[in-house]
Amino acid sequence: MATREIDAEKPVERAAKKRALNIPPVKVGDGILHDQEKYYSREFMDREWESLWSRVWTIAGRLTDLKRVGDWFTYKLGKESIIIARSAEDRIQAFYNVCQHRGSQLVNQDFGHSMSFVCPFHTWTWNIDGSLKRITDAETFPERTICDKPGLSEMRCETWAGFIFVNMDDNAPPLSEFLAGLPDAMALYKMEDMVVVKDYSVNWPMNWKISLDAFMEGYHAHARHPELVRMIDDYNFDYEVFGNGHSMMTIPMWTKSPRIPERSGLTDELRLSIQSAGMDPSEFENRQADVRPAAIEARRKWTERFGISIEGMTDDQVADDGNYNIFPNITLNAHPEGVLVMRFLPHPTDPEQCTYDVWVIAKPGSDPEYEMPFYMAVPPGTDLTGEGPRPERNYVEHGDEGLGLVLNQDGDSLPMVQAGVKSRGFRGVRLSDQEVRLRYMYEEYDRYLKGEK
Ligand code: FES
Ligand SMILES: [Fe+2]
């Protein structure tokens, strides 16, 4: 495919284009990042655990997975396993998944329902609210060993937009403060109304940040996603930052990459997009520029038909992919009808592996003709009513088909990055303005690692 040589342009022309990139008015550095060992060193991994993971708010799961009192699920964050439970109608609690007798884990399932947790080793038992229920043969323990009636160890737990966040640090700021400007920016998507319709979890052979980095920039799309750049503009993103490391970029859809020199014709991918919006591609042959305005109108009608609220949304929010990042490890590709949620988690012991979780959450709808648009990659026939059981969690291996074409294209290339950053010949990371969100995110990351947060 032909590509435009953007980098080779004269500086003054490049400066004009830089303004067109809509870089947020935020001060970020411009130097080479020389700390590439953060992608592979065990020492860095330990520092990350102490300074970041055990101090920051992270998403454990969705409120819709705790509908009834007694519902619980587990969340594995590095070396910790955490139980999140609905202990009362109006109460969600998070506990370390560990028995206070000799430290066995209490449960090893992803989801469960029970009013108590019975340790599988010697059957000590806790109530769903974490209080001690029973010590087997209590009379055989010295009084001073058990007189504190040990409850489960609890950690902080708060919710926003249907997401349940946990934090191991009792001194961390409240979630609303941590999220800074993000909730206002995302309010119109009404994610609190969405239900889980797809749930994949993959073990990926690279550091969690190698994976995350790739989902915070569109710069690699022309190289890694040839199909995608025939249906998005991969160059003219808008970027915004919200404080505390959170940021977003708007990915223009219903148009093709400016790297493709021929401007007026359609691509097969655009024809598919047009069709999926209920329009006739033949009406737009050689009228590429007309696709986007027509798609915005069609999208507005489509959302109205299925009762999806877009009140107050801009055309960009209706038509484009709003790619948000919740520091440190979440990306959300937001559309009015649903959000592709990605969660990047550190491996318990190996800095060169991570867990890559991919969920789709969607506004429920009971009309039999209601389907997720093709770009959400939700299999046809998926229950979108929100009334049935939540989908099974699919565990897939790196390279398996289940994730879909685009995400597998990312998965295929990233082990080469993991291998390359370890080279003695690699002299540091050089970031463009198209990768400004990485710079913004790593400046916050550095503040945590230096203990300034
Ligand atoms: S380790 Fe849990 S009851 Fe013994
Ligand atoms: Fe990608």
Tag the structure with descriptive keywords.
single chain; 453 residues; alpha+beta; Naphthalene 1,2-dioxygenase Alpha Subunit, Chain A, domain 1; Rieske Iron-sulfur Protein; 2 domains; eight-stranded mixed beta sheet; 18 strands; 23% strand; globular; disordered N terminus; binds FE2/S2 (inorganic) cluster; binds fe (ii) ion
CATH topology of the largest domain: Naphthalene 1,2-dioxygenase Alpha Subunit, Chain A, domain 1
Task: Indicate the overall shape.
Answer: globular
User: Could you tell me the number of beta strands?
Assistant: 18
Q: What's the order of the H and E elements?
A: HHEEEEEEEEHEEHHEHHEEHHHEEEEEHH
Computed Rg: 24 Å
Molecules bound to protein: FE2/S2 (inorganic) cluster, fe (ii) ion
What does this structure look like?
The radius of gyration is 24 Å and the shape is globular. Mean pLDDT is 94; it is low at 1-16. The strands form three sheets. Strands 12-13-14-15-16-17-11-18 form an eight-stranded mixed β-sheet. A seven-stranded antiparallel β-sheet has the order 1-10-9-4-3-2-5, with no helix packed on it. The protein has a three-stranded antiparallel β-sheet with strand order 6-7-8, with no helix packed on it. It has helices at 11-20, 42-53, 143-146, 175-179, 182-186, 208-214, 221-224, 268-276, 288-305, 315-319, 405-420, 436-449; strands spanning 58-62, 71-77, 80-88, 91-96, 111-113, 116-118, 125-127, 132-134, 154-160, 163-167, 195-204, 238-243, 246-251, 321-326, 330-334, 338-346, 354-362, 394-397. By secondary structure, it is α+β, with helices and mostly antiparallel strands. Strand 12 and strand 13 form a beta hairpin. The protein contains twelve helices and 18 strands. It folds into two domains: 11-38 and 182-449, Alpha-Beta Complex (Naphthalene 1,2-dioxygenase Alpha Subunit, Chain A, domain 1); 58-171, Rieske [2Fe-2S] iron-sulphur domain (Rieske Iron-sulfur Protein, 3-layer Sandwich). Residues 99, 101-102, 104, 119, 121-122, 124 line the site of FE2/S2 (inorganic) cluster.
